[in-house]
Specification:
Blueprint (H helix, E strand, L loop, with lengths): L7 E3 L4 H12 L4 E4 L2 E3 L6 H7 L1 H8 L4 E2 L3 H4 L7 E6 L3 E5 L2 E7 L8 E4 L2 E3 L2 H7 L16 H15 L1 H18 L2 H14 L11 H7 L6 H16 L12 H17 L7 H9 L8 H14 L2 H4 L6 H15 L17 E2 L2 E2 L6 H12 L5 H15 L6 H15 L12 H14 L3 H16 L5 H10 L15
Parallel strand pairs: 4-9, 5-7
Antiparallel strand pairs: 1-3, 2-3, 4-5, 6-7, 8-9, 10-11
Helix pairs in contact: 5-7, 6-7, 6-9, 7-8, 10-16, 10-17, 11-13, 15-16, 15-18, 16-17, 17-18, 19-20
């Protein structure tokens, strides 16, 4: 095989190109693969080559086709070797190792997605509707997935994106069902979504996980026991009230600068102080660190806004909404991290496995129900921080959003916000681990009391003055370089 030839070469109506192709074919440098398609690969089998370039070949041979039904969920060949598509006519095309099954139907709609040049894939809404159509077996399988798979996809979407987004998906599905002539299928989809949201009878559901959801969101019982144990300890402890030492807006924003700086640093988003100053006060983007820059800006945007930080949720539903909205602000510069969207894959830190995706929303809500039993603002603040951190609901940014939610409880009550300095990171993470693994809240509570007192010792009256205090207290050092010293 010559390296100067692409693996796939198409015939052309251009006479010059056609002569070149004939010459290559005659010289044995290419061979026929499919009608009007040739390959320079004489090593691999035809089915291997076709599968490697499948979407490209479909786009070339059947422009405007739509990957649909089960294939728009699976994005690969079915167990029987089929790929299901929608186009202008019914047909079955057999290629080496692949069977293309075309169903006559509407072409790509405005919200369907381009997959490869002139090949499209059904939108999420269209996919759900298509897979709720009745279908007959072809070659021993159906072009649609089973209903319980659709329900579990809907449940995953609900746990990841929330009720509001699921309702938006329902609204979009209603609109396109008319264009597609899938009114009956939308009615079934509507009932399933309603059952998941507990607004319609659950007997419509087939998936055990979806049925469990309809009776109330599942939660992690071990985590709830841990939250209740922490809340029990916080109820009976007489914490001294420490008023916020930021007396005006400028001081509030000065403290917020260092709050944002340290909150990002502890997560590995490390900048020099002067770089953070450029980011926040001069609106600069640090070269080759666009995402990190936006992390710092997003955190500061919330932490410096006293009106926003004074908002605390009054219900578990509002808690979820506030959590999502603030996370979206912090990570809006990282769309790949899906800001504001709950995780769909489990995450961990060392040997600690956090709450699994399908239990995230339920565990957060169950944990929130406990918070009102804690009388002090400080107690509620450090409970909130541990609740969010322990669930770890997002793909990224969990520590930052946990500390924002903590300090929001303190701002609401005009009490001293908390900074976790670099040098104190191991104490902070070690206390969290001890609570998680040994159900011992004492070390965590003592550590948070100490770091709030340190935060109060810092004077935000003047930026340079506060920075000097931070430097002199070893706060900027790594944990192995010194100890936090103050007072």
């Amino acid at each position: 095989m010559k390296l100067d030839l692409p693996e796939i070469i198409y015939s052309s109506s251009n006479s010059t190109e056609s002569r070149k192709l004939s010459g290559l074919l005659k010289d044995g440098r290419i061979r026929k693969l499919l009608p009007k398609a040739y390959t320079s690969n004489f090593i691999d089998t035809d089915d291997t080559i076709v599968k490697r370039h499948l979407f490209q070949l479909i786009s070339r041979h059947y422009p405007g086709a739509l990957l649909s039904h089960r294939s728009s969920i699976e994005y690969t060949l079915s167990p029987k070797g089929y790929l299901y598509l929608t186009s202008s006519q019914n047909r079955v095309v057999r290629w080496p190792g692949v069977i293309l099954k075309f169903t006559k139907g509407p072409g790509p709609l405005n919200n369907d997605n381009p997959l490869y040049k002139d090949l499209y894939v059904s939108s999420q809404e269209r996919t759900f509707l298509e897979n709720l159509t009745s279908s007959r077996s072809t070659g021993g399988e159906f072009k649609t997935v089973a209903e319980d798979i659709i329900e579990e996809k809907l449940l995953l979407f609900l746990n990841k994106a929330g009720e509001k987004k699921l309702n938006e998906l329902r609204d979009k599905s209603r609109e396109i069902s008319k264009e597609l002539g899938l009114i009956k299928e939308f009615d079934l989809l509507n009932k399933k979504i309603g059952a998941l949201l507990s607004t319609k009878p659950s007997k419509i559901l087939k998936s055990p996980a979806a049925m469990a959801q309809s009776f109330g969101e599942p939660y992690d019982p071990n985590r709830l026991n841990l939250f209740q144990k922490l809340a029990g300890a916080l109820k009976i402890m007489p914490f001294d009230r420490i008023d916020d030492n930021a007396k005006n807006e400028e001081q509030f924003r000065t403290f917020a600068f260092f709050e944002s700086y340290f909150s990002n640093y502890i997560e590995g988003t490390t900048f020099e102080i002067d770089e953070a100053v450029d980011i926040i006060y001069k609106n600069q983007i640090i070269v080759n660190r666009t995402g990190d820059t936006h992390d710092v800006k997003g955190t500061f945007e919330i932490c410096s806004n006293k009106f926003e930080m004074s908002k605390t949720p009054s219900s578990k539903e509002e808690f979820i909404d506030v959590l999502r909205a603030r996370h979206e602000t912090i990570l809006r510069g990282r769309p790949d991290k899906e800001p504001g969207m709950f995780k769909e894959r489990s995450n961990r830190a060392g040997n600690t496995h956090f709450v699994i995706p399908k239990m995230v929303a339920g565990t957060l809500k169950a944990g929130y129900d406990v918070i009102n039993s804690i009388p002090s603002a400080f107690g509620r603040a450090i409970y909130m921080m541990f609740l969010v951190s322990e669930v770890h609901p997002f793909n990224d940014g969990n520590g930052r959003i946990a500390r924002v939610m903590m300090n929001s409880e303190l701002v609401k009550n005009s009490e001293q916000r908390i900074i976790i300095p670099n040098v104190y990171r191991d104490d902070y993470l070690g206390a969290l681990r001890k609570l998680t693994r040994e159900s011992n809240p004492d070390v965590y509570i003592k550590m948070m009391v100490n770091v709030q007192a340190y935060s109060y010792w810092l004077n935000p009256t003047n930026f340079d003055m506060m920075l000097k205090q931070i430097e002199n207290s070893n706060a900027l050092k790594e944990p192995n370089e010194g100890l936090l010293k103050w007072k």
